[in-house]
Amino acid sequence: MSFELDRIGLIHSNGQAQGQRALRAVSISAARGERLAIIGPSGAGKTTLLRILATSIRPTEGRVSVLGTNPWQLSSRELRRLRSGVGFIHQAPPIPPRQRVITAVIAGRLGQWPWWKSALSLIYPADIAGPREQLARLDLADRLFDRCDRLSGGQLQRVGVARVLYQRPDLLLADEPVSAMDPALADLTVGQLHAEAQSRGVTLVASLHAVDIALRWFPRVIGLKAGELVFDLPPAKVSESVLRDLYASETGVLPSQDNQPFHASFEGYATDDTPGGSGQVPLAPPRVI
Amino acid sequence: MGFCLQCWLTLLLLALLVWASFAYLALDLSRLFSLESGRGMLQFILRFFPPDTSAQFLRKIAGATLETLAISAIGTLLAAGAGLLLALPAAGRLGPVFKALTRFLLNALRSVPELVWAALMVLAAGLGPFAGTLALALHTSGVLGRLYAESLENAPPEPAQSLVESGAPPALAFGYATLPLIAPQLLSYSLYRWEMNIRMATVLGFVGAGGLGQMLYYELSLLHEAQASSVIFAMLALVVFVDAASAWVRRRQMRAGG
Amino acid sequence: MLLALLVLWPLMQIAEFRPSDLFDARNLEVMGGFLGQFFPPNMSGDFLAYALKATIETLAMATAGIALAMLLALPLGLVLTHSLSVSRIGPGSGRGAGEAVRAAARATLLILRGIPELVWALLLVRAFGLGPAAGVLAIALTYGGMLGKVYSEILESGDTRPARVLLESGSGRLMAFFYGLLPGAGQELASYTIYRWECAVRASVIMGFVGAGGLGQLMDQSMKMLNGGEVSTILIIFLLLVLLADALSVFLRKLLA
Q1: Which chain B residues touch C110 with a CB distance below 8 Å?
Q2: What is the pTM for the complete model shown?
Q3: Which of A72, B46, B186, C83 is placed for a possible disulfide with C160 were both Cys, Cβ 3.0 to 4.6 Å?
Q4: Which of helix, strand or coil describes residue A213?
């Protein structure tokens, strides 16, 4: 079992949202190697759910198990080890603007490297080939030594992806990982995330604003609305009426990656749900809309 | 490769300077932080405990604390007056010759540290708090004079000009138009300086200029560690209190301003 | 006006505000003789060599003191910084212990910077004997307290997400600082440290009055012997030194920006 959420609930205890309920009785579990997309209108609790899986928020109700253990019963040393095995791709990559791309990518391994190796890497990177390889997968190898404030939003987002790929986590979480990219790059990036998950047999959970990407790439789609689980279905079963229900409060047009009106149709979507997969990369999306 | 060679060279140079400093002072850190000196240090510290808390001594401390506050208050007040008088010529109101002369005077007053002024004033006025008051007043008038002159120069001239044009004498125009404009700023400079002077007044006594410092110096030279530690606690309390009070005032000002 | 007088009068009494003291015949005589010697300043080669050594000692004291202060301030400042707290994530276990350590660090910094450097010097001279060691340590303690507090304030005021995210992926506290906070805050940290170095130069100039080495010690001796010529030379050196530290600090901080 890669993770298991058992009737998770969360009421924010501080900050602006104090006292507000973000999640109610959400139960999801995933086996190792599964690939899940989380969709839902904004404010549905997608990010909160991912952060609970990333052990960065502790739910106020219910039980969490991540990579086989309850993170909140671990000693701080064990919790650190667990966290270094969980990768989280943020929508706005939290990378200092004055940092070099290579340093930002290397920071993915800080939880695994001994401290002296991390410290030396501040002066001279202990590994250059590794970060270059991960950036090359995302078509960014030539920016290895640039400073991050020279990059566009989409490029920075890919640096954030490269960092987590370099981390080689056992649980790969992604919060709107392609929101700042154009459709072609978004497909490339989601494709690489799938390739990583399939080739190493690790679990991938991504929240996505664009419904078409979710339906096209992910064998399992989860709908979240107002902090509650609405559906948990293979993409073929996610009908247009299900989607209309999920996004009922929004404008009527379903969100898609290029903001074109989107109409769900249900042939030929990814149904590969064999954990571990064949190591094959789905080279092109099965269907262009 | 584009790694910041300059940054590392600068850091190396700084490290070298630090190393040179330690070498020049012949400081042996390993000896300083050795077990033996640690034990000696602990014994030294233990002699300061428990502090003397007899009512009689506490009364003496309260007196010295009051003296420290009085030194700082009167010193700052004198400096504010002198600073204002010097700021007028220093802002160029009386022509360029006076401006250059007063600027030089202000710089000279400011550059001599309070403690040096105190040592000089002890010679001029004898031991005691009056020397400390004068020392603070001299140094602070240099600082405040310069700050006041800057605010005078930056004040918009139009309100005073219109008064002068309508027939008011320049001195009155200054009092009625310019001063109210910059008064809040002058006040905040003076309060800030007062805060620093309270801190300073606690140590001026080391050269015999009164207050808590003189008491500490006296008790330490008689090897009365218990009494000395009471004085140190009083100093700490005073500084912490002033810190908190000024933070409180600034927060209120910010809320009123924003 | 009356109220002001009512408050001021007792204050003036306490401060023994007696301007007539200034014109006391004996004081006037001492001061007059002393000031009379100010011109010309003592410019003999012997004395200048002596003063030069004391000047270098003063600068070295400030530099070594600030270096030690940084060593003291960085760990304390990092402990104090909320955004580098692992136990606040979640919040996880050990939160109470974390808060206790933070409170202890805050109290330590408060005591370090609450006691003026000259008081530290006076005490340390008794522990380590006369000489610059006491001065260096006094600067290290007081400025360590100041730097530690301001370091953590600077670190909290910037973007703290990078560090938090690194902690969430299992990085240690120190590396989260180096990789997550330092790139954004480094400039400001360095600039503030340089400013404090400038203050430390001023402080080490007067350390000598309690026997902790440097120019102040020389001045104290000359003053006790009422040697006006030497005192005026040292005052001139004071001026130059403070101006130099001022200019250097402005230059370095401009270089950083």
Answers
A1: 240
A2: 0.83
A3: C83
A4: helix
